[in-house]
Design a protein that fits this description.
Blueprint lengths: L1 H17 L26 E2 L5 E2 L19 E7 L2 E5 L7 E3 L13 H5 L10 E2 L8 E5 L5 E5 L2 E2 L17 E3 L2 E5 L10
Length: 190
Amino acid sequence: MKKLLCAGAIMAGLLASGCGSTDNSASPVAADEYNASPTSPATPTEGASGMMSPGYSPSPTSPIMMAPTGPATIDAADTSLGKVLVGLEGRTLYLFSKDDKSGQSLCTGACATAWPPVLTLGKPVAGAGAKAEMLGTIKREDGMTQVTYNKHPLYYYAKDEKAGDVKGQDVKDFGGEWYAVTPEGKKAKH
């Protein structure tokens, strides 16, 4: 059965590659603003929906974009903003001012690509400097479980490249403002 499926997939690929024009001299290329190369930074632009477009998408192999394999661990670390919450690889965690404390994340689609939600498989764990009593979870529209802190859904910022980066602090994007989160569950200040 596996051989038949494999052979079918190969045939479908060969048939698809045989379709189309042989003149490639003037074929238009469709651009997808969310798949721009991270080596060519784009400036956020106002979209038709009034939302800010990040013009950047992290690699799908980035740990912050992968499905969780276990409970998320939330720690606190020192940054240029002071002590803030961090997740995978020590990356800064953010809250979205547009989210309310009703248990819903208002960051989906393109927003969730620019601001990947902090996902967990199981109950999140409070690491060094984080308060266990402030940790919680919500269910996202896609069925995934997102970590909350002081009832704020938590997010990474795709443009933060390493531990200690706080490029998402005070950014106006997707109809709201974004702030790093302190261990007290409040937005960080400059």
